[in-house]
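step 3/5: co-fold with BES
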Amino acid sequence: MYRLTVTRKAAQCFLGSLTLGTVPSLHLSARSVFSPAVIRPHLRPQRSLAPPLCAFSTATATPVAMAATDKPVEKFRKDYKPSPYLISTVHLDFQLNEESTLVQSKLRIVPNHAESSPVSLFLNGHADVVLESIRVNGADLEASHYAADAQGLTIKSGLPSGEWDLEIATRIKPQENTSLEGLYRSGGMFCSQCEAEGFRHITYFLDRPDVMAKYTSRIEADKAKYPVLLSNGNLVDQGDLEGGRHFTVWEDPFVKPCYLFALVAGDLAVQEDTFRTMSGKDVALRIYTDAHNTSKVAFAMQSLKRAMKWDEETFGLEYDLDLFNIVAVDDFNMGAMENKSLNLFNSRLVLATPDTATDADFGRIEGVVGHEYFHNWTGNRVTCRDWFQLTLKEGLTVYRDQEFSADLNSRGVKRVEDVARLRAAQFPEDAGPLAHAIRPDSVIKMDNFYTATVYEKGAEVVRLYEALLGRAGFRAGLDLYFARHDGGAVTCDDFRAAMADASGADLGGLEGWYARAGTPRVEVGVEHDAGAGTLTVTATQAPPVLTARGGGGDDGRAGDAQAGEQGDSPPPLLIPIRLGLLGADGAQQPLHLRSGPGPDPAGGSEAVLRLEHQRQTWVFERVPARPVPSVLRGFSAPVRLTVRGQSREDLLFLLAHDADAFNRWEAAQRLGTALVLERYGAAVADGAGDGAEARAARAAGEADAGLADALRALLADPRLDGQFKAHALALPDLAELVPEVPGADPLLLHHVREAAARALAAALRPELERAARDNSDPPGAPYEFEAGACARRALKNAALGALARLGGEGVTQDLLARFRAATNMTDEAAALAALDRIGGKVRQEALDAFYAKWKHEPLVLLKWIAMQAASNLPGNTAAVRTLMQHEAVKLSNPNTCYSLFLAFARSPVNFHAADGSGYEFMADSVLQIDQINHQVAARMVGVFNSWRNYDAERGALMTAALRRMASANGISANVYEIVTKALP
Ligand code: BES
Ligand code: ZN
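step 4/5: write tokens
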């Protein structure tokens, strides 16, 4: 299957698109860079210049260097203190102009400390914010009372006691803002992005999520250029002004932290709909886009209505305002943002038609629209006390969007996809130098903590509650959470307490999941006693294996950074293990638990075992014959599982029979992994001096007959979902295989994987041809994004992709014909990807034809960019450097960068080229992009984090690239944090 790009967010999200936004001027402000001397990693720690009333005190124990303004200061979770002041109301006034924007803010300040006289007040700010005036209770404040610098504004004296009004005027230049945080321009419009700490780029403020206020926002701008002026809440006033200007006033009745503030001004077209809530209220739904894109929002609108309905039905959660707006923005660092009643979306997650978007794109749009909508309760009505608690809203909301998509589509397939992503992105992160707990203990740049761990592992941790409490118990816990905390800013501990209190369950064993990094290991063994008719299940848990930051073993490679088995083991975790037993006929056996913790399944076919000690045993009765156990069904906990004594036959049996779709797929993955690793070993042992490809081909030999037979049976099973079959056919991703091989040669591993896939395709050729034929739509069939149709396309395209590995004139011609005749992007992109695999002249012709057809659709061109960047043609790095000059490539646009650079890093042949040219290209690009957008550059530099997984030569080349970046002039704090943590 064609994959648009890369991993989610350094991981997560979405990533990978392109857009037509205008190119913001390159802004190389001297104020936002470091001087070269200050970024050496081992400088003596520096104290922060932040005033003492700042929420977090400064690191003294960790070597952190100093910069001119963008100071890498490490902040610690343990240092949380409530703010000495709160803000009850905020009145904002924006005068938008082409040269600059005047922001006037009036804050009602409320003391929140026990001192008898006023303490000083520190408001966060940024070097780009220019202070124009400051007034206290209506009178200008004397200059001696306050001081402003690049970090913020301190009012040291002259503060009234009790509540008071603070008025601040600042001037900013959104048109020069290429960082895309705070207020900036994209295309012809003004838009904002304030999470996590962007509001301080707009005005001086208590920029922390536990300061929640009621907002009124007035926006004034030229009416012809910016007919649409939006902010949060309800429109309460609007009118025309002199000089062709106009204004709107918005009032948000709900208290919120400033990270949820949003502003949009532009010449936008709107599509409207309505949703009637469960209590009978009509909500106006509006999606704003550039005029030429209005035809592409129907699916997003439908997804929004489905999300609103689903949240009512599933969690009893109703929308709370009379309107809900979504705006599509071309230049956007992330996927989308949940600002109260004014969600901002990366265009690529809103705009979709069958001819421009793939099934995967539609699925992503549905999920992200749901995700941001669901934040209205999990994030907005109840928010985070501090940013260390980010997983409180993100882990929970990812869990909710996963469930939403599972309910609307195929649950089994969704679970497989989510776990595959977790393993490909989060497991490596959690075993590498940037491993952190889902609730981190310290942070330099908060932007760097929107990670696969906080999001995906965080969602898995929420899923643990569901596994332990059941659906009803989980729902009761969530109900109590809202009852207790609506309107509040709370912690992960508050969430766990609500879950425990609502159910009466002991959930203390979940604490460690928040506090510790790394993937825990679990081993399960079963022993059958034929005489007694019992099955004894034993489970043990062991702490994660982490790669030490700063060197583990003698060679600085894999080591155990945790208190390991030798030292004091951390207290055991609570781990739910979902289990079933299969009889000789493949049917599920009824379960009768004799003893041990966990509810007796009482004859049901599934048990959830509560593993909460280091080692535990359960005895099942009335088990006359040895069953095949199906362990950790549905991936009931994010652990690395070993099933002791599990044979190849057991796995083939599970693949053929397991009622649990996830474990069926898992069996195929385990068989595939074993196959590739065994053949990789043979290729390494092959003494011939020829290239990796030749050695891989010899080692791969014939297909594994057992696996081929099992997959053949799977393909023939009419009851199975086509998407599921497509997933089962795929060998594990390279990202999952690499960590299994100490000191992996990525090139050889890639070629072995390819050769093994080719051998499997050859063995299954007739079945693949049939699958491609039987699942092809008749010419002119309408496209539908619907489970059955998606399943047919998925299987057909997986089969075509596999056949492309075999090559041959017949296959090539068939693919070319399909490419030309395709009537939807799913089939067109899949055919293009297959032709890309075939290479040569057809590849180039297809790419050229694709460009000619889609050159006016920037989102489609993202696919074209990513496909070329990820190519495994030897020497493609030079082609990618050339591609950077193409008119379709706009480096100020994050989607373009993700499609270009993160896709490139997925090419084992070129990123990992033995001469280091791929690493050099990537490092050059990181430094170039860091001058434009720190957040994007920091995402890009993450591709070097895995250097310890590779052979010594590559490890040395990758660390050399990291060192070069670390010592380059003027890198951002964002990039600084990642490179210094990644280095030994
Ligand atoms: N709150 C985030 C967006 C965000 C994160 C903005 C960090 C600024 C900084 C939003 O809810 C989110 O999580 N978006 C995801 C997509 C989601 C489906 C996981 C994203 O942007 O990748
Ligand atoms: Zn989110």
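step 5/5: annotate
Residues 9, 12-14, 195-196, 334-338, 367-368, 371-372, 375, 394, 398, 401, 450, 455 surround BES (ligand 1) (CB under 6 Å).
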